[in-house]
C-alpha cells in the first residue's frame, strides 16, 4: 500500500493564506516576526486500484482536513519554513468547496501558530536566528461518542461538554444535539 504523498501547495494557497494573515490583526505577531510558513497539499494513501485506504492527514489517529506543525530545527537550518500547514488536497480541491471554507481552514491552522515572546527582549529566536514558535491549543476540545450521547443523554460527558459550549460560547454549532441534551431519561 503506497504511503500518503505531499507536494508543495500551489501559489494560490500561498496568496490566500497571505490575505488571511493580513486581514485579521490576531496574526500581526506572525507578520511582525516575519514567520515563514510552508503549505503542503496532502494526498491519501491508495491501494493498487487507486482507491483511498486512509485519510490524507490524521491527528491523534483521527482524520483531519488540515494540520499546523512546527518545522524541525534541522529543516529550518536547511532553509525550510518556520512552520507548516498541511491541507487535505481532496477536500481543498473538491468542486463544491468555497473560498470562504478554504479561508476558514487556513485561518484555523494559522491561528495555532504563536510567537514565543520574552517581556524584556521581545521575540525569542532559535539557534537558526528564526522566531521561536509555539502551537496554540484549541480553546475547546471535545471527544465525542454518538453511542454514549444517545444512551446516556444529558448524563453523558458528551452532552455535558456540548451544553457547556453552548452556554459559555453562546453558540449552537450542532443544533441536532439540543434534542439529546434535553433528554431527561436515557434512550
Give me the secondary-structure topology.
Blueprint: E1 5-8, H1 11-23, H2 28-32, E2 37-43, E3 58-59, E4 62-63, E5 66-70, H3 73-77, E6 83-88, H4 89-93, H5 99-111, E7 113-115, E8 117-118, E9 122-123, E10 133-135, H6 146-152, H7 157-169, H8 177-181
Parallel strand pairs: 2-6
Antiparallel strand pairs: 1-2, 3-4, 5-6, 7-10, 8-9
Helix pairs in contact: 1-5
Report what the structure shows.
This protein has two domains: 131 residues, Zincin-like; 36 residues, no CATH class. The model has no long low-confidence stretch (mean pLDDT 88). The protein is built from eight helices and ten strands. The chain is α+β, with helices and mostly antiparallel strands. Helices cover 35% and strands 19% of the residues. Strands 1-2-6-5 form a four-stranded mixed beta sheet. A two-stranded antiparallel sheet has the order 3-4. Helix 1 crosses helix 5.
Amino acid at each position: 500500500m503506497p504511503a500518503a504523498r505531499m507536494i508543495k501547495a500551489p501559489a494560490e494557497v500561498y496568496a490566500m493564506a497571505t490575505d488571511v494573515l493580513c486581514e485579521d490583526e490576531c496574526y500581526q505577531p506572525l507578520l511582525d516576526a516575519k514567520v515563514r510558513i510552508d503549505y503542503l497539499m496532502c494526498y491519501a494513501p491508495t491501494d493498487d486500484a487507486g482507491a483511498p485506504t486512509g485519510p490524507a492527514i490524521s491527528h491523534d489517529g483521527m482524520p483531519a482536513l488540515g494540520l499546523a506543525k512546527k518545522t524541525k530545527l534541522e529543516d529550518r537550518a536547511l532553509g525550510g519554513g518556520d512552520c507548516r500547514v498541511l491541507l487535505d488536497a481532496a477536500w481543498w480541491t473538491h468542486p463544491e468547496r468555497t473560498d470562504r471554507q478554504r479561508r476558514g481552514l487556513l485561518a484555523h491552522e494559522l491561528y495555532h501558530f504563536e510567537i514565543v515572546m520574552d517581556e524584556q527582549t521581545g521575540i525569542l529566536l532559535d539557534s537558526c536566528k528564526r522566531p521561536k514558535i509555539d502551537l496554540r491549543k484549541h480553546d475547546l476540545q471535545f471527544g465525542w461518542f454518538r453511542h454514549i450521547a444517545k444512551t446516556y443523554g444529558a448524563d453523558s460527558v458528551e452532552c455535558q461538554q456540548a451544553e457547556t459550549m453552548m452556554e459559555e460560547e453562546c453558540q449552537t454549532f450542532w443544533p441536532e444535539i439540543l434534542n439529546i441534551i434535553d433528554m431527561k431519561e436515557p434512550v
